[in-house]
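Design job #97: recover the sequence.
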């Protein structure tokens, strides 16, 4: 699909990349300007009324969008592809996103490919999509605590998360838990010795965490997986060695169900994760991010 790559890079990207920055709404600019005025006045007069006015105006401004999401003078387009799955991140009006999808469909038809409309959709950046098993989205208005007394809201940019629901569903299909994430003993391993049981659980654990080593919710994923898999392994060992409860298994074999190399990995070990993946500066600063997720295939 190199022709499609060239089409997006040479035709769509220049056409839908315009403007230096999204403009601020007039009401937002007015409120922030008045807030700054009373803030400067307070520094001179030390009058608490001026400070209260400044805070009230700033709070009203922060309840509004700080940029115009439908600014007709600004747009950005980003594109990535893996095999026949592709993803376009677009900042701009929804109508332009529809036009982009239709242009992609028309071009693909010219080179003997067909856009699978059942697997091609447009969604808001805050909703995101699943691409290559990863949840890509842009959470809006997240609170960040830089200091104990100061709380600010900021757009954290594009986030790459492991979809916990999907991961748990796969573990459930393999017999490690139920659909709600409650652990179950995988009794197919009952006849194996303890070392082999631990090695199998460790390989499952390492495999999932290795795939999602770049994810922004890595810590939550690692803790959830560790809890499910350790409990499942403990139940197998409890049944095999007549220990009756998970607690007795943990008391006998320890937190990681073993020692040295034959134990479950410690997800808190800084060397276990490796190098985290970082998005580029431009991508991480996209404020409104429409997602066009598509799948192309040869015409039949």
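Job complete. Output follows.
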């Amino acid at each position: 699909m190199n022709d499609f790559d060239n089409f997006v890079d040479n035709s769509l990207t220049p056409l839908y990349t315009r403007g230096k920055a999204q403009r601020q709404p007039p009401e937002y600019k007015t409120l922030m300007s008045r807030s700054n005025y009373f803030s400067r006045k307070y520094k001179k007069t030390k009058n608490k009324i001026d400070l209260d006015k400044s805070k009230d105006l700033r709070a009203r401004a922060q309840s509004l969008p700080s940029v115009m999401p439908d600014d007709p003078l600004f747009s950005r387009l980003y594109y990535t592809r893996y095999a026949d799955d592709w993803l376009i991140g677009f900042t701009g009006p929804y109508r332009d996103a529809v036009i982009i999808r239709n242009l992609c469909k028309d071009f693909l038809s010219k080179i003997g490919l067909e856009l699978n409309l059942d697997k091609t959709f447009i969604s808001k950046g805050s909703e995101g999509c699943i691409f290559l098993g990863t949840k890509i989205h842009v959470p809006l208005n997240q609170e960040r605590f830089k200091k104990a007394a100061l709380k600010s809201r900021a757009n954290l940019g594009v986030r790459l998360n492991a979809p916990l629901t999907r991961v748990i569903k796969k573990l459930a299909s393999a017999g490690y838990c139920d659909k709600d994430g409650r652990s179950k003993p995988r009794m197919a391993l009952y006849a194996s010795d303890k070392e082999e049981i631990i090695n199998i659980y460790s390989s499952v654990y390492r495999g999932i965490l290795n795939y999602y080593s770049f994810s922004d919710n890595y810590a939550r994923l690692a803790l959830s997986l560790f809890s499910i898999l350790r409990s499942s392994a403990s139940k197998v060992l409890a049944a095999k060695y007549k220990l009756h409860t998970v607690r007795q298994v943990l008391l006998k074999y320890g937190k990681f169900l073993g020692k040295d190399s034959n134990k479950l990995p410690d997800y808190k070990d800084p060397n276990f994760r490796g190098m985290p993946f970082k998005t580029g500066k431009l991508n991480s600063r996209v404020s409104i991010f429409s997602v066009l997720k598509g799948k192309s295939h040869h015409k039949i």
